[in-house]
Amino acid sequence: MLEHIFGSKTRLKLLKIFFAYPERSFYVRELTRLCESQINGVRREIANLETLGIIVRVSGGEKEVKARENIKSYRLQTGFLLYQELKDLIDKAQMLEEREFVDNLKAKAGKIKLMLLSGYFTQENDAPTDLLLVGEIKESAFSKIFQAFEKNIGKELRYTIFSEKEFLDRKEMGDKFLYNLLERRYIKVTDDYQFLS
Q1: For 66, which DSSP code?
Q2: Pairing of strands 131-137, 159-162
Q3: Which of 76, 79, 137, 161 is the most exposed place for a label (fewest CB within 10 A)?
Q4: How far apart are the C-alpha atoms of 55 and 74, rounded to whole Å?
Q5: CATH for 2-81?
Q6: DSSP bridge partners of 188
Q7: DSSP alpha helices (H): ranges in 71-175?
Q8: Burial class for 70, CB neighbours closer than 10 Å (0-12, 13-18, 19+)
Q9: d(Cα 96, Cα 103) in Å, to the nearest integer?
Q10: How far apart are CA 33 and CA 22, in angstroms?
């Protein structure tokens, strides 16, 4: 939907990256890799975003290697007039994408008995995983859905898959990873067998 509003897939991908990391600066080649787009298209959209005042060029620091002094990097201009409105729009679109991701997993990734979203989905960077699945998971179908979602959000996520037996065994023995996850904020999407009761 936002792709049609913004008029360009590359522009939307760039905006998602900049809004996901508002304090970070990015080199053009890094953005090209993250967007999986042609460098000329990325340069064109960077020029558009810079003209609009959404991003700003950042000069290299003193410790930068001389060879890198002429390489341009860019970061989000958090003080531009429509910052909050644009952030809200991207956040809402992200929620729709997350819902579609979860629905695809439930429909195509196998028999999921427990699904927890954490880390990325709850804005807790130190969570041990972003996604926990328990059940009979079809690896190839899961990988396809998961990689498409990562590509869409421009960020690598962590996931953990357990069989029902492995999950119950780990829960029984007080597994550190599992309890670290369960003591943090998480979103329980599916819990068919009341594992967390």
Answers
A1: G
A2: parallel
A3: 79
A4: 6
A5: 1.10.10.10
A6: 116
A7: 83-108, 139-153, 164-172
A8: exposed
A9: 11
A10: 18
* Distance (Å, whole) CA 142 – CA 127: 21
pLDDT single digits (tens) 119-161: 999 988 889 999 999 999 999 999 999 999 988 777 789 999 9
Tokens 């002094």 — which residue? 69
Assigned token pair, 105: 């997993």
Q: What does the DSSP assignment read for 16-28?
A: HHHHHSTT-EEEH
The pTM of the whole model exceeds 0.85: no
In contact, 171 and 178? CB cutoff 8 Å:
yes
d(C-alpha 88, C-alpha 92), whole Å: 6
Domain parsing of the chain, residue ranges: 2-81, 92-191
- Residue 132 is which amino acid? L
Cα separation, 1 vs 136, whole angstroms: 33
